[in-house]
Design goal:
CATH superfamily of the largest domain: Response regulator
InterPro entries: Homeodomain-like_sf, HTH_AraC, LacI/GalR-like_sensor, Peripla_BP_I, XylR_PBP1
Number of domains: 3
Strand order of the largest sheet: 5-4-6-7-8-10
Organism: Massilia cellulosiltytica
Number of helices: 15
CATH architecture of the largest domain: 3-Layer(aba) Sandwich
CATH class of the largest domain: Alpha Beta
Protein name: Helix-turn-helix domain-containing protein
GO molecular function: DNA-binding transcription factor activity; transcription cis-regulatory region binding
Oligomer: single chain
Distance between the termini: 21 Å
Keywords: DNA-binding, Transcription, Transcription regulation
Length: about 375
């Protein structure tokens, strides 16, 4: 298996391959680097029986061009048929449907302006350019201009300039706007840029990524909405194809497009048309700092109005109190923390600003009709079933 385990997409594909092996009588001995990194040195001397590989990486495609054992490619879909590798069975994530699902979601929450945050053009990120093409096509169908910003590559040396470029681009966009980022990692950068620039999310910029990466969710102040790729299904499908090839079935030009599995909708894209500037500013502050245990009076101080006035504005605009909004933000963060399955319930409660595990338990029972443990178990069960 030639994949980079530091990428969420690759990890999910590997998990799908493992799911196929666990659900069948196939007994494969797998070669995968101990640190789950993709290395091609010595591949020409490898004595294995078959390969499943990340064909988004041009170096992998070149390294396997003369391979004499069965190979199954996994990667992004292409609008141009000639871009697919010839003679190789190929399992693709449907880039068009990924972008369409994200845009449809932004339309459903009431937005009318859209933009995309992509990556600099490179052979290694052809999938990002395909997502740009999908966005352009969708915008052209509605006779709208496709606003796309690629920004800079991520590096320590260029970080300050990269963030300033993102801020300048965000400020130039008419508001409110829905932004689709080609990955969760790019979406996280924009969330930081919005926080630095004082741009309200999602009131001014509603943001959605692609990958549903649990690590990225832990690194954002505002819970990030994301399209869930069907990477598990891709891994299972690729393993099934290789199994058939090992039994002599010819599948040289087989091509399977796997649609997205859905959307994990969180706070970053839950747009509401908020008109009052004090409410917009307060919501922006709450989404960033709710989990730090802020109180209503602190929100009012940040906005620069009295507590009673802010409560009136909230009731008029949102039909709830400032405290309700703080609690809702903490609950969203807690749900995301539990769904990752990587922290204990007590750690989630503490990290999301609840005074105790018992209080979080009471809030879950009142607001969601279940306990935090039941919520986590259900989320993890759905992920395993998928």
């Amino acid at each position: 298996m030639l994949f980079n385990g530091n990428k969420t997409f690759d990890r999910e594909v590997i998990a799908g391959i493992a799911g196929h092996l666990g659900g069948t009588r196939v007994a494969w001995d797998l070669f995968l680097e101990e640190d789950f990194r993709l290395r091609l040195n010595g591949m020409d001397r490898w004595q294995g029986d078959g390969v499943i590989a990340d064909f988004d990486d041009p170096a992998v495609v070149r390294a396997l061009s003369g391979c004499t054992v069965p190979v199954v490619g996994v990667g992004g879909s292409y609008g141009n048929e000639d871009a697919y590798p010839p003679g190789v069975p190929y399992v693709a994530t449907d880039n068009f449907k990924l972008v369409k699902l994200a845009r449809d979601h932004l339309i459903d929450v009431g937005l009318q302006r859209f933009a995309m945050f992509s990556l600099p053009e490179a052979q290694e990120s052809r999938w990002a350019q395909e997502r740009e093409c999908a966005f352009r096509t969708l915008m052209a169908e509605d006779r709208m201009e496709a606003e796309i910003f690629r920004g800079c590559e991520t590096s320590a040396a260029s970080w300050d300039a990269a963030v300033q470029g993102q801020i300048d681009w965000l400020r130039s966009l008419p508001k409110p706007v829905g932004v689709i980022a080609v990955t969760d990692a790019r979406a996280r950068q924009l969330l930081q840029a919005c926080a630095i620039a004082g741009i309200s999310v999602p009131e001014q910029v509603a943001l959605i990524g692609i990958d549903n990466d649990p690590l990225v969710r832990m690194l954002t102040r505002i819970p990030l909405s994301s399209v869930i790729q069907g990477a598990h299904e891709m891994g299972r499908t690729a393993a099934h194809l290789l199994e058939q090839m090992l039994h002599g079935v010819r599948l040289s030009n087989t091509r399977i497009l796997v649609p997205p599995a859905g959307i994990n909708v969180l706070a970053s894209s839950r747009f509401q048309a908020v008109k009052h500037p004090h409410v917009m500013r307060a919501c922006h502050y709450i989404r960033q700092y709710a989990c730090q245990g802020i109180k209503t009076h602190q929100v009012a101080e940040y906005v620069g109005v009295s507590r009673s006035s802010l409560e009136v504005y909230f009731r008029q605009e949102l039909g709830c109190s400032v405290h309700d909004m703080i609690l809702k933000s903490k609950l969203e963060a807690a749900k995301a923390g539990l769904e990752s399955g990587e922290r204990s319930i007590a750690d989630v409660a503490l990290g999301c600003g609840f005074t105790s595990t018992q209080y979080m338990h009471l809030v879950f029972k009142r607001e969601l009709g279940c306990t935090p443990r039941a919520w986590r178990d259900r989320a993890l069960g759905e992920r395993t079933a998928a």
